[in-house]
Amino acid sequence: MTTILTFLVAVLFVIVIALTVALFALARQVGVLFERIAPMGALVNDSGPRVGQATPRFTLASLTGPAPVEIGPREGRATLVFFLSPTCPVCKKLLPILKSARTGEAGWLDIVLASDGEEPRLRRFIQTADLTEFPFVNSTELGLAYRVSRLPFAVLLAADGTIRSKGLINSREQLDSLFNAHDMGVDSIQSWLDRPAITA
């Protein structure tokens, strides 16, 4: 009996050693994979005005304030136009991130929320989601001008009214990629990652 127990303990010990080695090997492979996978930016579409072009100009009524909302050049201020819908679950998931960005990027950025649909429904959405601090416009024409076909979608405008970056946004990382592209002066994070390597 003692011999059998000793054998079983020895077998278990070998199994534990093998599992430990496998765990370290797996951790190493995960690390290698993480290094190889580049961060994914906003999913840029090729329709509508291109990055670098001047934005179409709009003056739109706001559902959250008396002053009209200007889409176009703003002296010293960039503008993020964020397209969303009350029926879009991903949009709702991103609302806390937008609120955080509104505070964290307040020194240089204005955020405008845009949707289209029945105004009473949008007003209820604004109240229930606590979006009264954002300029919120209801405009089909705005979405058509930027060729917005899927939500949530964002367009970042430079202070001079040129489109600095744009794309489909599904996460904080993709929203941040628009800001990073703006700061780096590139069309998108993908275009920066895909640039030809500089050889010495």
UniProtKB/TrEMBL annotation:
InterPro entries: Thioredoxin-like_fold (IPR012336), Thioredoxin-like_sf (IPR036249), Thioredoxin_domain (IPR013766). It holds the Pfam family Thioredoxin_8. Residues 49-184 form the Thioredoxin domain. PROSITE patterns: THIOREDOXIN_2. May be required for disulfide bond formation in some proteins. This is Methylamine dehydrogenase accessory protein MauD. It comes from Rhodovulum euryhalinum.
